């Protein structure tokens, strides 16, 4: 049972980083994964093309929530150009766990929301 | 309880280890495992009897045709249909319902007509009617779980209803419902989705009085790729064909064609010959055990599971009342996908998600759920392991 559900993962799940909303966000996006009922929202404050403030909100399985939590820590302070280049491999490296194809969808949900939010500002 | 020790010996897949644990398969509502008698029948067919059917004169063709039609007779007897002409072989339950919707439905449902279904249906017995009503600008009436149909049936042309819910395990009182429907509105036809019923209880379509009854082979020890549409002969005779081509015709000229007799009118092209024949072996296997005994076995497993669930405060069970072999539940604060993943790491296979019943989940206000479903090879020991592992999962998260 320990492969995916190890301490560091469960810690992010029980205490998600940057969890919440931003009332005056520069960018916002939301995706609902109907397949499993995961919902992730991203709120961003962007200044000079850098992420000045980031929050995520939503509900879902461990993989979706932890991925969002780790992603918000990972991208804080980074340039939007850099974030648009992130892909599947970066998320897998970030999570550092083995994922089956179905759970991979859960892991990539927050990246999709983040990149879509940034896309909308252009 | 059935003699599960003996039964399990017939199922080679139950010897598998999953992540180092013996497989505990609790996803039978999705599909069932196959006994070696069924697996051997498939090999036997291709090694000894394989030929196309209904046309050839040579020995293999005669044998294959006989074996195929023998299964039709077995299927008719299995659900006590009046005649094998009322058994149409299709790909699965979904295709059976789509056949009725596109043939009978398209011909009989017109603007402002009423089709009644329920909130607890599998998507296969919901989406076809939803789409037919949209196309024909007819009205789709959706009954709640209380099945209060009396006021809705007066102007209805069809009631499409499940026999056993694949989410809640509820057994609907189909015989009583059909009696009342026909009394209120004799012109209203009834289609019953029996996919979760026929594997686990005796079904008598003549006694039930339904006009259509549908089910799948793979949910009752049979192979995938085979389903059955039962329909009363007088209704099938009025229905246009579903698919056109070979075998469903008597004669073809340049300008028109004459349809074949029942049931061949609805079986165009080369069917899934091998798997239909193998389905016959699955029916034999089940009838040897006895559907009444299977029903009791499942009831005992269900009661045991529910009583053990009651000792875990974090479990929420959905549905209540007259249920069999299917239980949907959630662990408070833990997503069903995570529960399913962690159970899998201990060798336990359950289903998590919406179980092809999104309207029901929305109605019950749940995001996604876990589902366990039993069959003839499951034991009290399987459930004990399930309970133990659920407790471990809860500990890990709290």
Account of the protein in words:
- The complex is a heterodimer of chains A (122) and B (398).
- Helix content of chain A is 46%, strand content 22%.
- Chain A contains five helices and three strands.
- Chain A has a three-stranded antiparallel sheet, covered by helices on one side.
- In chain A, a hairpin with a 2-residue loop joins strand 2 (38-47) and strand 3 (50-59).
- In chain A, 39% of the residues are buried.
- With 398 residues, chain B is of the alpha/beta class.
- Helices cover 39% and strands 17% of the residues of chain B.
- Chain B has 13 helices and 17 strands.
- Chain B is globular.
- Chain A binds chain B through residues 1, 3-5, 10, 14, 34-38, 59-63, 103, 106, and chain B through 335-338, 341-342, 345-346, 352-354, 358, 367-368, 392-393, 396-397.
Write the layout of secondary structure elements.
The complex is a heterodimer of chains A (122) and B (398).
Chain A: H1 7-14, E1 27-33, E2 38-47, E3 50-59, H2 62-75, H3 80-84, H4 88-95, H5 101-121
Antiparallel strand pairs in A: 1-2, 2-3
Helix pairs in contact in A: 1-2, 2-5
Chain B: H1 4-9, E1 17-18, E2 21-22, E3 24-25, H2 36-49, H3 59-78, E4 87-90, H4 93-108, E5 114-118, H5 127-136, E6 139-143, E7 156-162, H6 174-184, E8 189-193, H7 205-208, E9 212-216, E10 227-231, H8 233-238, E11 249-252, E12 257-259, H9 273-289, H10 291-309, E13 315-318, E14 326-331, H11 336-344, E15 348-349, E16 351-353, H12 358-363, E17 369-373, H13 380-397
Parallel strand pairs in B: 3-15, 5-6, 5-7, 7-8, 8-9
Antiparallel strand pairs in B: 1-2, 4-10, 9-10, 11-12, 13-14, 14-17, 16-17
Helix pairs in contact in B: 2-9, 3-9, 4-5, 10-13
């Amino acid at each position: 049972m320990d492969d995916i559900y190890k301490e560091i993962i469960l810690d992010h799940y029980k205490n998600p980083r940057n969890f919440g909303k931003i009332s005056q966000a520069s960018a916002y996006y939301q995706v609902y994964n109907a397949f499993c009922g995961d919902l992730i929202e991203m709120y961003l404050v962007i200044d000079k093309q850098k992420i000045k403030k980031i929050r995520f909100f939503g509900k879902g399985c461990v993989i979706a929530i932890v991925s969002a939590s780790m992603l918000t820590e990972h991208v804080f302070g980074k340039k939007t150009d850099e974030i648009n280049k992130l892909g599947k491999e970066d998320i897998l490296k970030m999570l550092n766990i083995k994922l089956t194809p179905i759970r991979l969808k859960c892991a990539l949900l927050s990246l999709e929301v983040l990149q879509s939010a940034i896309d909308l500002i252009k | 309880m059935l003699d599960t020790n003996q039964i399990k010996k017939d199922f080679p897949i139950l010897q598998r280890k999953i992540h180092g644990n013996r497989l505990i398969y609790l996803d039978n509502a999705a599909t069932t495992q196959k006994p070696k008698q069924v697996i051997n029948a498939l090999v036997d067919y291709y090694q000894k009897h394989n030929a196309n059917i209904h046309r050839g004169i040579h020995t293999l063709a005669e044998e294959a045709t006989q074996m195929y039609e023998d299964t039709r007779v077995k299927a008719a007897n299995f659900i006590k249909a009046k005649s094998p002409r009322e058994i149409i072989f299709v790909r699965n339950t979904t295709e059976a319902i789509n056949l009725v919707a596109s043939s009978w439905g398209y011909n009989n449902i017109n603007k402002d007509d009423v089709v009644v279904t329920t909130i607890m249906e599998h998507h296969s017995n919901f989406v076809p009617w939803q789409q037919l009503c949209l196309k024909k600008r007819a009205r789709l009436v959706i009954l709640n779980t209380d099945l209060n149909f009396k006021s809705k049936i007066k102007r209805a042309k069809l009631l499409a209803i499940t026999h056993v819910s694949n989410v809640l395990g509820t057994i609907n009182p189909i015989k009583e419902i059909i009696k009342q429907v026909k009394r209120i509105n004799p012109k209203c036809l009834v289609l019953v989705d029996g996919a979760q019923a026929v594997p686990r209880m005796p079904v008598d379509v003549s006694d039930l009085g339904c006009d259509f009854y549908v089910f799948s082979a793979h949910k009752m020890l049979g192979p995938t790729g085979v389903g059955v549409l039962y329909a009363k002969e007088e209704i099938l005779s009025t229905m246009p064909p579903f698919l056109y081509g070979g075998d469903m015709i008597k004669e073809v000229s340049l300008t028109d064609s004459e349809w074949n007799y029942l049931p061949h009118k609805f079986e165009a092209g080369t069917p899934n010959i091998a798997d239909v024949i193998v389905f016959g072996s699955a029916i034999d296997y089940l009838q040897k055990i006895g559907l009444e005994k299977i029903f009791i076995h499942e009831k005992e497993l269900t009661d045991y599971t529910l009583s053990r669930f009651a000792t875990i405060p974090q479990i929420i069970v959905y549905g209540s009342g007259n249920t069999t072999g299917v239980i949907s539940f959630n662990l408070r604060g833990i997503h069903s996908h995570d529960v399913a993943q962690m159970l899998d790491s201990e060798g336990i296979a359950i289903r998590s998600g919406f179980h092809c019943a999104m309207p029901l989940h929305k109605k019950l206000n749940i995001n996604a759920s876990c589902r366990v479903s039993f069959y003839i090879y499951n034991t009290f020991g399987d459930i004990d392991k399930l309970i133990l592992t659920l407790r471990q999962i809860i500990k890990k998260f709290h």
